[in-house]
Amino acid sequence: METPLAGGLQAVYDAVISSLQCRRPPMLQFRVLQSLMRVPSETMGFLRRARSVDILPLLSALLEDCNPEYKEVVRKFLMEFIDGCIFIMDGHTGYVSSVAFSPDGKHVVSGSSDSTVRIWNPQTGKQVERPLQGHTAPIVYVAFSADNGGIISTDKDNILRTWDAGTAEPVGAPFRGHTQSVLCVAFSPDGKRIVSGSYDQTIRIWDVEAAEATGKPVGEPFRGHTKSVLCVAFSPDGKRIVLGSYDQTIRIWDVEAAEAVAGLCSNQGDLYSNPSPSHFPVFDSSNFLLQSTVYIWLFLSLCIPPMQIIV
């Protein structure tokens, strides 16, 4: 039930929003926002907040001004007084299948069923450069390299492509080696290698420089899973890769030896993984996240069985 205090606060809030919509000079906008900052924080939960995507353009004058106080009051306003959606980034003409932040947080990359890859500025919500074009099939997955300079994308025609994030140009030849859609991909920490997993139940390792010249992977595919490989990741030292599959198992491979050094299975559902420096958190989500069961496994050694469950 709305209290008198909440009702009064809503009226003040609505008046502030109306004032912003009048596009007054930056100094007046600053003072209006300052007045709202004095509202007791315990009453915030009662507000019907405006949409970020509607309000943010009204704050452009404050954001573009060099006065640091202006930027600080806008930051607080965005954090406390509007909903959480900062931008809606439009541009793709098909569904968006994959997105990723660059490691430095300065860019977002997206891939779509329209067969394009796009780079965005998360500070403005605007597209950077033109669409990255070169794929002829829907994009499945996109990822940044650790140095922020490279992008890898995969598609349903079994192709991987690398891109220069600065110029939005493709780098070298398309990577060919999988026989079905490439579902996941990751750069090694040093950016020199790429691992990919596919609907064809294999993973492949790519030397970035060599593959950009020849389009060919390193050696033979890594085999062992009986269903699609859904997720892949390098260990922080780049010497091992971990992958999860629709067959409900995880395997850890030694990159140089090209052989599995560890494995575990679960009879609870499909496995999704994300390595950290000392642990491999493994998310087992039966029935596509309906069961929401989570297991965390500690990687102990290169011997089988290599893992113990952490409780």
Automatic annotation (TrEMBL):
Pfam families: WD40. The keyword Repeat applies. Keywords: Repeat, WD repeat. GO terms for molecular function: U4 snRNA binding; U6 snRNA binding. SUPFAM superfamilies: WD40 repeat-like. One of its GO terms (biological process) is mRNA splicing, via spliceosome. The keyword Ion transport does not apply. It comes from the Eukaryota. Transmembrane segments: none annotated. WD repeats lie at residues 89-130, 132-173, 175-216, 222-263. GO terms for cellular component: U4/U6 x U5 tri-snRNP complex. Gene3D superfamilies: YVTN repeat-like/Quinoprotein amine dehydrogenase (2.130.10.10). This is Uncharacterized protein. It comes from Hebeloma cylindrosporum.
